[in-house]
Design brief:
Layout lengths: L12 H8 L1 H25 L21 H15 L18 E7 L8 H15 L4 H4 L41 H7 L8 H9 L4 H7 L15 E7 L7 H8 L8 H33 L6 E5 L6 H27 L2 H25 L1 E2 L2 E2 L6 H27 L8 H28 L7 H36 L6 H14 L43 H12 L1 H20 L17 H11 L7 E8 L7 E2 L23 E2 L10 H16 L3 H4 L23 H4 L5 E3 H7 L21 E4 L24 H4 L4 E7 L7 E5 L20 E4 L10 E4 L2 H12 L2 H6 L3 E5 L5 E16 L5 H21 L10 E4 L2 H33 L2 H24 L6 H6 L1 H20 L5 H30 L5 H32 L9 H35 L1
Antiparallel strand pairs: 1-2, 1-3, 4-5, 6-16, 6-17, 7-8, 9-16, 10-11, 11-12, 13-14, 15-16
Helix pairs in contact: 1-14, 2-12, 2-15, 11-12, 11-13, 11-16, 11-32, 12-13, 12-15, 13-14, 13-15, 13-32, 14-15, 14-28, 14-31, 17-32, 18-29, 18-33, 27-28, 28-29, 28-31, 29-31, 29-33, 31-32, 31-33, 32-33
Length: about 1150
């Protein structure tokens, strides 16, 4: 029985041209392929055009720019960078130790590290660094004259003579490590001989005990558990920072560069940190290795500035990727039996990648024009996707071509037309469904998923174009010119033929492997191969073909048990799929277990208390609450998210300041203080996850003048509720740092003391009468500030001389004087009698308040503490303009590494609801300032929560669109539905595997799940196409034909892809391992389900005859419409004849 007569179709012009001019066609396509590769190289390397943008290759692309939490994050960071006045030019040399610490974690496994031996081991590790000869040139220093930074502050002179001061230095002024070792020495136990008593003494200090707790295990408890198997040390290196002026003078720019802040921080600091990294690597690489001890306890894990083990691991993994590609090449060479065809096939795959690069980068339309300048690592790994799909297409085409050799074709063009009719049609369906599944990801909210789906889809399209043009011409050249060569390629081809002969696959190795997708001719009586006869003339028994003669009968006999086994497996994994949870990316999981980075990061994140890295809620004033950031004309692919908390990275968008915000008004200052108290006293800590016990500005307790001493908090982390205005209110002595200022006239260098009478008494209440306090320009506003005060002279930019209030005693509640609180829009100050008028009190603009606040922030420890709480902008002349932003920070019970996205977002939503209600209460007050809530982790948490619905909706959309394509291609909705059911079961098992493997649905998995539909659809579609093409009348006959036609091609494609994936499973970086695991699992499941479950399902309920045909749904309507049109045609003809007859009679 004839299965099909497609091979009798007339060849097209294209087929005739290819067969008539195979060499010219092949050379033409070869030139185009090589030119695409050369063009990309010229653009990228020669002309500097970013075909592949290296700056974005490490991006993941799960940010959502329009998410309100991402907008707030970018607005906050952009505002912090723009409002930089007074910050960029005051950096001391080697003062910013927080940028470049060396962190050490001693891990003793299950043993206690808080022993004499354990602490001595940590001290010895510290001495490796602070004891070396160059330590004085690299250590972090304290300065006694900040921000001038010219005199080093040496806190002690002998290393064993420890005053009770946390910021201990060595005799050269170098800050010693922050560690339990330093604390033990500080409290008089340098040799760790009385550990329990020393810890008890440390616990009595409100500053030192929180620091100590941050260095030991989170389970440490003074009352119940005095043991800790891990202890941490931070060696404070100082990079050789210079200030802004130094770098501008070095470049010869002086003060001419208006972008000094960005230029200074991003370029010079990065270079300084790079130099320090080189110093650490060059001098201590062997020391680090000895300390870590290959991860065997006891070990000391380490981390230092710009420590990046990823590069070395990537280089090792890239070598394994090359091995994977080599495996595919060798297997393809073995299967095809031709070195020439294999080379052409691999060139087809690689050149498809370069075609796609050019289309994706310059031609594909996007909302902002044409081309995507967003090439991530995922796009690069799409090469693996096309490696599998391209190899599968090559096997399909080659097997069809080889099998067509036994048919009777009048011309080569006819043979090529037959191959196109089967192989190319099958590949068109598989490519279309794969492209649709990838393109469906364009609906994703994540730009990384969108661009990966687009790039992978275009890659499949490019490969399909190549397999329809270049590869057929290469095969024709092989048959005509290369196949019979005895040398060159012919010599190479001897190897796979010899292997196949030894394996019993026949002389040419085509009997067992060369069975085409869409092959039908061997089953026809007309095209059956001649019978083989033995020496005695008897007909030899035909050699059995596995899929047709062994597997098909077996599957038909056991189809019900086979279906049951697959359904049970699917049901088990369905449970896992239902239990899957989004999981955030833990950075250490990217590295191999047992490596230093893995050990250090895991210990840092999981073994130490959250207070060591607390997460803050920022209550921000000065930004537009409703529209905090303006992205302008930014492309979505150019979006640069702000990292949690602060950094020097230039982020996307310009912050929208609230221009009505004025910090110097009494109204705002009162609102600010009231809000601090409300947060501290009225909000429920269990709902807003506030850390109890610290209160407002705990580091200022007992400090009468509100100036931070040089304490642990001055260079470390803040605790509790940080309220700048409360600190400024406590700052009574505003002349603390004016003693060194040169006075304009020595005659008036002495201070003048003023004594005031008491304020008037209200006769009704007996209290102070403040009824006069109505005119901000009145000198009476200042008269009753204090019982008495001293005025000293100091030069100021606003006036010739300014009276500075100092040594104040009792501060009146409504005092509006400089140095008191609150400060109104106009501030009074004192001038001396020798100036223009004799009035001792005169009011000036609120710039005085801003200047005094900036001075307060910059004094001593205050600068280290408060410079991240008040931000000022500058005008066109690069001078102070206004205080643009301030904030209150609230410490939460979460840490910055918190992975519970739901708990985190519940907290964020609670703060958002509170802020909305708070802003609504003041909506009618023109002097009210709105507050914006910013939490650095919120965008990451939102991404994690959206991963599940995004992945699920993407998979469902892919399945639906693939079903539509299959319905159209197969012209049978039952066959298409059974195929989609199979693909859906494969996808379910993959989701279940993520749960059982403990991976969950993280960022990497959310990207990789895109591959499932694209890979799993191919083999099922091949079988569907062959089932449909068969003209057998029974389900068994159709399935047998489909297995015989495509089984070997499916198996060959699967082996090549699985082999490449297996090599990737040995990679170092977890992403490459997961990528290989995804491909391996998907291909194995696709192979088993397509050849097992799907074929068994077709044996049970596959459509026969006209059942399920698409035409059945609309055939009746078409017949009815056809009859109606035919009837109308006949009526029109009759009318026409009648008119002609009437005309002839007339």
């Amino acid at each position: 029985m004839t299965q099909s007569d497609d091979h009798h179709k007339k060849p097209t012009v294209f087929h005739q041209f290819l067969t008539a001019h195979p060499e010219a066609s092949c050379c033409c396509f070869l030139f185009c392929n090589l030119f695409s590769i050369l063009l990309v190289l010229i653009l990228q390397v020669g002309l500097g055009v970013n075909v592949i943008n290296g700056d974005k290759i490490t991006k993941i692309g799960l940010e959502i720019p329009d998410d309100i939490h991402q907008m707030r994050t970018n607005a906050y960071e952009a505002a912090r960078q723009e409002a930089d006045f007074g910050l960029s030019g005051i950096m001391c040399k080697r003062s910013e130790a927080k940028r470049a610490p060396l962190s050490l974690i001693l891990d003793l496994g299950s043993a206690n590290a808080l022993t004499q031996d354990g602490l001595a081991r940590l001290a010895a590790a510290e001495d490796n660094f602070i004891g070396q000869s160059e330590w004085q040139d690299r250590c972090a220093l304290m300065w006694s004259d900040y921000p001038t930074c010219s005199v080093v502050n040496k806190a002690n002179t002998a290393i064993d003579s420890w005053p009770l001061n946390y910021n201990i230095t060595d005799p050269n002024g170098c800050l010693l490590p922050n560690s339990p070792v330093t604390l033990f020495r500080k409290y008089g136990d340098p040799h760790f001989e009385n550990i329990q008593a020393t810890i008890t003494a440390i616990s009595q200090n409100a500053n030192d005990y929180p620091a100590f707790l941050s260095y030991v295990d989170k389970d440490f408890d003074l009352a119940n558990n005095l043991e800790s198997s891990v202890v941490k040390s931070i060696v404070l290196y100082g990079t050789p920072f210079q200030n802004y002026t130094y770098y501008m003078d070095k470049l010869g720019l002086g003060d001419q560069d208006p972008s000094h802040f960005e230029y200074y921080t991003e370029e010079f600091i990065d270079q300084e940190l790079t130099d320090l990294n080189s110093y650490m690597v060059d001098n201590f690489e062997s020391t680090f290795e000895d300390l870590f001890n290959d991860g065997n306890t006891p070990s000391i894990a380490y981390n230092y500035v710009k420590y990046d083990p990823m590069q070395e691991l990537v280089a090792q993994d890239l070598a394994k990727i090359v091995i994977s590609i080599s495996f595919v090449f060798c297997y393809m060479w073995f299967s095809l039996g031709s070195f020439f065809v294999t080379c052409c096939g691999m060139l087809q795959i690689f050149s498809s990648f370069f075609y796609t690069l050019l289309i994706y980068r310059f031609l594909w339309p996007n909302p902002d024009g044409y081309g995507y300048d967003y090439f991530t690592l995922f796009c690069g790994l799409a090469m693996f996707v096309i490696l599998g799909i391209g190899a599968d297409d090559i096997f399909v085409y080659w097997d069809t071509w080889q099998a067509s050799e036994v048919e009777h074709h009048s011309t080569s063009a006819s043979r090529l037309s037959h191959v196109y009719g089967h192989a190319v049609t099958a590949m068109l369906v598989t490519s279309a469904t794969t492209v649709i599944s990838f393109f469906s990801n364009l609906s994703s909210a994540f730009i990384g998923v969108q661009t990966f789906g687009l790039f992978a889809g275009l890659l499949v399209c490019s490969n399909f174009f190549q397999v329809c043009t270049f590869f057929p011409s290469a095969v024709l050249v092989y048959d005509k010119r290369v196949k019979d060569l005895k040398f060159c390629f012919g010599l190479f081809d001897f190897i796979p033929k010899l292997c196949k002969k030894k394996a019993g696959n026949g002389k040419d190795g085509v009997d067992g492997l060369q069975n085409a997708a869409g092959l039908d001719a061997p089953l026809t009586e007309e095209a059956a191969p001649p019978e083989k006869t033995g020496a005695d003339g008897e007909v030899e028994e035909e050699k059995k073909q596995f899929f047709r003669d062994v597997y098909a009968p077996f599957l038909d006999k056991f189809k019900i048990p086979v279906l049951a086994v697959f359904v049970v497996i699917w049901a088990v994994f369905l449970v896992g799929a239902c239990l899957i949870q989004p999981t955030p990316l833990e950075i250490y999981t990217l590295f191999p277990p047992g490596s230093n980075f893995y050990s250090f990061t895991k210990l840092a994140l999981t073994r130490f208390p959250g207070e060591a890295n607390p997460l803050y809620v920022h209550l921000v004033f000065g930004l537009n609450v409703d529209d905090p950031v303006d992205y302008g004309d930014m492309k979505a692919t150019d979006f640069v998210p702000a990292p949690p908390e602060t950094s020097t990275t230039t982020v996307s968008g310009k912050c929208n300041f609230d221009r009505s915000f004025t910090m110097s008004t009494t109204d705002f200052q009162t609102q600010f203080l009231d809000l601090c108290n409300e947060v501290n006293n009225e909000l429920d800590p269990s709902i807003y996850l506030m850390r109890e016990g610290y209160g407002i500005n705990p580091q200022l307790e007992g400090v009468s003048n509100g100036v931070l001493s040089d304490s642990s908090q001055a260079t470390g982390k803040a605790y509790g509720i940080q309220c700048l205005m409360q600190g400024f209110q406590m700052f009574q002595n505003v002349s603390k740092k004016t003693s060194e200022v040169v006075l304009p006239d020595p005659e008036y260098s002495e201070s003048i003391e003023y004594i005031f009478d008491g304020a008037p008494v209200d006769p009704n209440t007996g209290g102070t009468d403040w009824s006069f306090d109505t005119d901000p320009n009145s000198d009476l506003n200042c008269k009753y500030c204090f019982d008495g005060f001293i005025v000293s002279t100091v030069q100021d930019s606003n006036v010739k001389q300014e009276g500075v209030v100092s040594n104040t005693t009792k501060i009146a509640k409504h005092c509006n004087c400089m140095g008191a609180f609150p400060v109104p829009e106009h501030i009074c100050f004192s001038e001396f009698d020798y100036l223009e008028d004799t009035n001792p009190f005169k009011c000036i603009t609120s710039t005085m308040f801003s200047d005094s606040l900036v001075k307060y922030v910059e004094i001593g420890g205050n600068q280290n503490w408060w410079n991240e709480y008040v931000y000022a902008t500058k005008d066109e002349t690069n001078k102070f303009e206004r205080i643009a932003m301030t904030e209150i920070t609230v410490q939460t019970t979460l840490d910055v590494f918190s992975t519970d996205a739901w708990k985190g977002m519940d907290m964020v939503d609670s703060w958002d609801a509170w802020a909305s209600a708070y802003n609504l209460l003041g909506a009618d007050d023109p002097n009210f300032s709105k507050v914006m809530v910013y939490v650095g982790n919120a965008p990451k948490w939102r991404q994690t929560i959206l991963l599940m619905p995004a992945a699920t909706s993407g998979v469902l959309l892919s399945l639906f669109l693939s079903w539509i394509v299959l319905v159209i291609a197969c012209e049978n909705y039952i066959l298409a539905s059974l195929a989609i059911l199979t693909i859906g079961m494969i996808t379910t098992i993959v989701f279940g595997f993520l749960t059982f493997a403990g991976w969950g649905l993280g960022i990497l998995e959310g990207i990789l799940v895109v591959l499932v539909i694209g890979f799993s659809v191919d083999y099922t579609v091949h079988l569907s196409d062959s089932y449909k093409a068969s003209e057998e009348v029974t389900r068994y006959g159709k399935v047998k034909f489909a297995l015989h036609s495509t089984g070997t091609s499916i198996l060959s494609g699967a082996i090549s892809t699985i082999g490449a994936a297996l090599i990737m499973l040995t990679a170092n970086i977890a992403f490459f391992v997961k990528f290989g695991a995804f491909i391996f699992l998907t291909i194995v499941l696709s192979t088993l389900f397509s050849l097992g479950f799907y074929c068994a399902l077709l044996l049970v309920c596959g459509p026969l005859g006209g059942r399920g045909r698409l035409i059945n749904l609309y055939g009746g309507w078409l017949d009815s419409a056809g009859r109606h049109m035919e009837e109308e045609r006949r009526v029109a003809e009759r009318e026409k004849r009648a008119k002609e007859e009437m005309k002839s009679k007339a």
